[in-house]
Amino acid sequence: MSEKLALFAASWELWRGAVAAGVVAGAVCGFVGIYVVLHRIVFVSAAMSQVSSLGVMLAFWLVQAQAIETAHHSEDILPLLFAALFTGVFSAAMAGHASARLSDRTKSSEAFIGSVYLLSSAALVLVGDQVTRGAHDVANILFGNTVIVDLPHLLLFAGVSLPIAVLHVWLRKDLLFVSFDPVMATTLGYPVTWLRVLLLVSLGMVISIGTRTIGALPVFSFSVLPPIAALALFENLRSSFWASAVIGALSAFLGYVTSFLLGLPTGASMAATAGVFLLVAKGLQRLRD
Predict the structure, then answer these.
(1) From 192's CA, which of 153, 200, 206, 256 has a CA 20 to 30 Å away?
(2) With 0-12 CB in 10 A as exposed, 13-18 as middle and 19+ as buried, what is 101?
């Protein structure tokens, strides 16, 4: 094990891009994920991951079928555009979706989210089966098995994610007020609808680019598991936000190191590490109670 650690340190230049991308994803998704848990839209995040993955896979297939001509230097921009487009359309549909009516339960948000998740999952498998550029690329998108992330992808991901994190820090009190008491927020003149749109669109942007960079599984995991762990550890919401970001970043780093040492899939290792943090947090919560 010590020899593998020494090898990991010696070849750090190869892994640092992937580790940095994972840490950024863990921190940002962990921070924003607090709203995901508070708004009870966990499965919106799951559906976004699937829709984004479908966009990336469809871009691969269209290039393979020569339905779209793309230059070598821009061949990886197309999947990002498709992922952002698909996720943006879903976010807009979610933001404008009406609540369930007693006379028609098929119009509920839950039914819409479930339908989108199932249909995008089925389409993802069908389109992925037609892509011949390699099972490795498919696995990277679905499960986050990316070992190396180059500098342009890292800079793009950080350039989008970090400003979104700063925006959420700035609007944290407003978003929290809307999360806990939307009726009172509306009465006091808060732009409740626009704040919800901002939350969904910003979440969609992070998920769409994060899916292409490190994979759908770790991105979805970071937006759910660290926030639940942080909320279990702290009753103070301000502490929960920062704890969630730290847990997400540590999950990414430790998960990557674990995958290298044990030869395990990278994305699954990150998700499992976040799960370990959650179990520890729940255990500490029970001891405290």
Answers:
(1) 206
(2) exposed
Q: Is residue 125 part of a domain?
A: yes
Tell me the per-residue pLDDT of 183-208, one tens digit each, with 9 for 90 and over: 787 788 888 777 877 888 888 888 87
- How wide is the angle at C-alpha 126 spanned by C-alphas 124 and 129, nearest 5°? 100
* CA distance linking residue 272 with residue 278, whole number of Å: 10
Q: Give the number of other Cβ atoms within 10 Å of residue 105's Cβ.
A: 10
Residue recorded with tokens 């925006």:
167
pTM of the model: 0.79
Q: Domain count of the chain?
A: 1
Q: How far apart are CA 278 and CA 12, in angstroms?
A: 28
18-43: pLDDT as tens digits: 888 889 999 999 998 888 888 777 77
Closest alpha carbon to 277 in 120, 117, 106, 253: 253
Is 242 within a domain? yes
- Tokens standing for 15? 């892994």
In a domain, 288, yes or no: no
- Nearest-angstrom CA–CA distance, 277 and 104: 41
| Residue 166 token pair | 């700063």
Query: 55 with 87: CB under 8 angstroms?
Result: yes
Residue-number span of the structural domain to which 269 is assigned: 2-282
